[in-house]
Amino acid sequence: MKQQLENIKEKASLELTDINTINDLEAFRINYLGKNGSLTAVLKQMGKVSAEERPIIGQLANEIRASLEKEIAIKEKQLIKIAIEKELLNGTFDTTYPSKNIGGTLHPITIVQKEIEDIFKTMGFIIEDGFEIENEYNNFEALNIPKHHPARDMQDTYYLDNGQLLKTHTSAAQNRIMRKYKAPLKVLFPGRCFRNEATDASHDNTFFQMEGLMIGEDVSISNLIYFMKSLLSEVFKKDVKVRLRPGFFPFVEPGFELDINCLICGGEGCPTCHQSGWLELLPCGMIHPSVLEMGGIDTEKYTGFAFGLGLTRLTMMKYGINDIRVLNSGNLKVLKQFDVR
Ligand code: FA5
Predict the structure, then answer these.
(1) Whole-angstrom Cα distance, residue 332 to residue 193?
(2) CB atoms within 10 A of CB 107
(3) Residue 158 near residue 196 (C-beta atoms within 8 A)
(4) Considering only Cβ atoms within 10 Å of each terminal Cβ, which end of the chain, N or C, has fewer?
(5) 286 and 302 in contact (C-beta within 8 Å)?
């Protein structure tokens, strides 16, 4: 058996030198160290070895295993280095991709965003990305807001010299996403939004929303209310008081405003809720047929709902943050408190 082990060691070292890809390296590892690998197979015969020889053979097998693991780890590093160098040379290496070990803490908005994504993923939604720089068509026209429509006044933003703009709401991605996925569709797309706002405790010029669309046959207001309720009860893990009232958005009909009872003052009235006891959180409604048509959706067959959750405000309510400006402050002393990883 000792000889068998020595042979395995020699064969493995020879094979390892010829390996050039990570996939081949993984196959090699499984071949030798896997559940049915050659080294494991030899070890399974230990019962046949005499009692005196067993510790010697056991020690040798362990040494061979340890040395193989070490060699595999070295080889893996070499192969990754070569692959990165190759990607850097041909320009396909993404230097902006976030590292796995980022250190630091997650931003409270990111924590809540991930939580909501997980909730919706279990309900069959896919997660999409939107752009921060958009064209006027996607941000306004495709949402039934033509030039000179008064609804544009409520969402003034920053324009670029080339006519593009910083998107005012996540709804700006609706048209692109409808065209990309077609119906039926269940999708969630979070994103950073920008508005030319006078800031106060609940308004910032840069904030996050999270948009959701569900398009299918027979999608109705009942579906909309069910999803909104599930979302809030999962996030707050307790009953929160909400109110649903009619709301106007040119891209939904009917449209609603879902407000949350201010959790900072318990509805008594405070600067965060502008003394009203309520905070606008989750506008929503049934997608306007013209918006569906502009998105290439057959309105004879499909209906859908859309919502535009104020993610930054939800984060404030969840963690009892009474001023929105804290969240963009970059003040680590404050932000660190919310990391719950
Ligand atoms: C919209 O932006 C619509 N696109 C939402 C929508 C989507 C309606 C789909 C219907 C269907 P509104 O301007 O109300 O609507 O903004 C939505 C939410 O974003 C608000 O309820 C609020 O929670 C948040 N929000 C808006 N402006 C600000 C701001 N300046 N600072 C922080 N949060 C804001």
Answers:
(1) 22
(2) 17
(3) yes
(4) C
(5) no
Is 249 a pocket residue for ligand 1 (Cβ < 6 Å)? yes
Query: How far is ligand 1, taken at its centre, from the CA of residue 65, in Å?
Result: 59
Q: DSSP secondary-structure letter at 104? A: S
pLDDT in tens, 48-103: 888 888 888 888 888 988 999 999 999 999 999 998 888 888 888 887 777 776 66
What pLDDT digit, counting tens, does each position of 124-159 carry? 999 998 899 999 999 999 999 999 888 888 899 999
- In contact, 143 and 223? CB cutoff 8 Å: no
State the DSSP string of 278-335: EEE---EEEEPHHHHHHTT--TTT-EEEEEEEEHHHHHHHHHT---GGGGGS--HHHH
37 lines ligand 1 (CB under 6 A): no
For residue 288 and ligand 1, the question of a CB distance below 6 A is answered with: no
Smallest CA separation from ligand 1 atom 32, residue: 203
The residue to which tokens 């709902």 are assigned: 305
The set of residues, in sequence order, having a beta carbon less than 8 Å from that of 319 and lying 6+ positions away, is 108, 338
Pocket test for ligand 1, best of 202, 221, 313 (most atoms within 8 A of CB): 313
pTM value is 0.73
Q: Phi, psi at residue 207, to the nearest 5°?
A: -155, 170
Count of Cβ atoms closer than 10 Å to residue 257 Cβ? 18
Mutation pick for ligand 1 pocket among 280, 290, 325 (CB with most ligand atoms within 8 Å):
280
| pLDDT value at residue 241 | 87
Q: For residue 147, how far is its CA from the centre of ligand 1 (angstroms)?
A: 20
Distances (CA, A) of 279 to 17, 64, 104, 234, 306: 65, 65, 31, 19, 19
Residue 267 has pLDDT above 70, yes or no: yes
